């Protein structure tokens, strides 16, 4: 979701798009039309929004969100949340649909960009965080298109042979980071649309969205490691708890010195947040130590799960002013406690301290999905538990149970989409093996041999049938001795 840019940035944007049009095989008339279509809404929109309608001390007006702005939200969410991540995965597996999909996503993003300047209804402060983040996101998208066009031209002679590898790396890194940019910008869009995180609300709002996003990111990483990363973990020579404990210890150090504004009076929440940071870095160091065996081999341990469980217990008893906020925080704490508890069970009892279920890293127990999914749910519960959001839910008349179920539903959809993207990558990089029967692959060739043998049975005499069985027995013994595939089909064809 992008919003209006400043006048100065419009000039630089125009130059960048003109250069792109000059490099790509696009006629000047089409390029000018595209530029006019993109920038005309911005020119028209300047007279339609009066910031004087915004109440004093607020970031948005009391007007409702109109249909055009809703379309802008859905189009940009579809482009940046669905199309671009899928296009990124297709680019990683070098699928031929990568370029068409990214072109389609870019066209949708430009359409949503235009709609963001044509809406009526609610008025926003021009200096909102969503508008400020739109400028770098727009140029990153343009840069990604330019880099992609350059790579598609396959210029590999002269100086291009030297710079092409760097262009490929830059295109790859920017493309993989684009879902992260998009996530931040979509959060900024929601904050701006509702007028949240202003004034005294900024600190707690930032804490909820940062920590909630961190839990979701942790869930995404665990999903990747669970589905396609087990062999990578073994190659690193470290257990998963080593990396988890290192991140926990680092985050604890940050929380220890940032949760309390030093020089001011200590309050109850400051004590809880600061001591939580201390236990994170203290126990995180223990987890790092336990993750390395006496001989240097990787070892599993319970520390990350225990820290998450303890954090959930602390959050479940966090004091709140509103009842609905207390219930939401309590459910968040219980969910986080569930993550830690099930994580300990998985390591100690499901996997029996082993890196995984199987040596090939492809077998997964159903229970292993439980802590991963609960991390997604915990992240959305914490993001949705900021005080302004709680006030909005209370004003709407919705009860805590319905609100929590909605957040769990959103977590389920994000969890599903993450697994879909990983599955697209995994099926392309590691195609599923053919079913095995008696040590031999039962693919199309084996099925064809079985069909030939069945059809020839009715055409053979008894003597031929006995001879065929004798040849099968003799050649089958030879095949077993050297471990070669069965030649039943070829025997049948010779006897026929």
Automatic annotation (TrEMBL):
Q: Fetch the InterPro entries from UniProt.
A: DUF2427, YTP1_C
The UniProt keyword set, sorted, is: Membrane, Transmembrane, Transmembrane helix
Q: Where is the composition biased (Polar residues)?
A: 483-496
Q: Where is the Protein YTP1-like C-terminal domain?
A: 182-425
KW Transmembrane (keyword) present: yes
- UniProt protein name: Uncharacterized protein
DUF2427 domain: from which residue to which, for each copy? 54-154
Region of interest (Disordered), residue spans? 469-496
Q: Where are the transmembrane segments?
A: 69-90, 97-116, 136-155, 176-196, 208-229, 270-290, 331-352, 364-383, 403-425
Keyword Membrane on entry: yes
């Amino acid at each position: 979701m992008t919003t209006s840019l400043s006048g100065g940035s419009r000039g630089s944007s125009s130059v960048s798009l003109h250069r792109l049009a000059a490099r790509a095989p696009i006629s000047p008339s089409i390029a000018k039309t595209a530029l006019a279509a993109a920038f005309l809404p911005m020119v028209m929109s300047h007279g339609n929004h009066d910031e004087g309608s915004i109440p004093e001390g607020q970031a948005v007006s009391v007007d409702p969100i109109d249909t055009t702005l809703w379309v802008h939200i859905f189009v940009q969410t579809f482009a940046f949340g669905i199309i671009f991540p899928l296009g990124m995965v297709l680019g990683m597996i070098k699928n031929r649909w990568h370029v068409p999909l990214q072109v389609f996503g870019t066209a949708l993003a430009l359409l949503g960009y235009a709609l963001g300047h044509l809406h009526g209804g609610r008025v926003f402060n021009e200096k909102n965080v969503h508008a400020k983040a739109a400028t770098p996101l727009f140029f990153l998208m343009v840069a990604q298109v330019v880099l992609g066009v350059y790579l598609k031209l396959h210029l590999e002679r002269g100086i291009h042979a030297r710079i092409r590898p760097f262009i490929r790396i830059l295109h790859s890194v920017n493309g993989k980071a684009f879902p992260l940019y998009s996530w931040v910008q979509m959060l900024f869009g929601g904050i701006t649309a509702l007028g949240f995180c202003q004034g005294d609300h900024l600190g707690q709002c930032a804490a909820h969205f940062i920590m909630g996003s961190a839990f979701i990111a942790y869930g995404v990483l665990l999903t990747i490691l669970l589905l396609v990363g087990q062999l990578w973990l073994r190659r690193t020579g470290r257990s998963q708890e080593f990396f988890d404990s290192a991140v926990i210890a680092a985050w604890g150090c940050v929380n220890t010195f940032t949760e309390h504004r030093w020089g001011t009076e200590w309050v109850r929440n400051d004590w809880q947040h600061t001591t939580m940071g201390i236990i994170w870095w203290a126990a995180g160091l223990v987890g790092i130590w336990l993750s390395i065996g006496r001989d240097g081999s990787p070892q599993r341990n319970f520390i990350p799960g225990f820290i998450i469980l303890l954090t959930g217990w602390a959050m479940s008893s966090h004091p709140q002013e509103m009842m609905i906020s207390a219930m939401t925080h309590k459910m968040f704490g219980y969910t986080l406690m569930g993550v830690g508890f099930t994580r300990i069970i998985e390591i100690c009892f499901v996997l029996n301290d082993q890196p995984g279920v199987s040596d090939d890293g492809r077998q997964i127990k159903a229970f292993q999905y439980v802590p991963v999914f609960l991390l997604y749910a915990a992240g959305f519960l914490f993001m949705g538990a900021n005080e302004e959001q709680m006030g909005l839910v209370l004003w709407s008349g919705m009860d805590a149970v319905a609100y929590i179920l909605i957040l769990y539903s959103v977590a389920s959809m994000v969890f599903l989409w993450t697994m879909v993207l990983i599955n697209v990558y995994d099926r392309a990089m590691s195609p599923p093996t053919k079913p095995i029967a008696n040590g031999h692959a039962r693919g199309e060739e084996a099925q064809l041999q079985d069909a030939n043998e069945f059809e020839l049975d009715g055409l053979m005499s008894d003597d031929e049938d006995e001879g065929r069985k004798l040849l099968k027995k003799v050649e089958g013994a030879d095949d077993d001795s050297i471990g070669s595939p069965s030649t039943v089909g070829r025997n049948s064809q010779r006897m026929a």
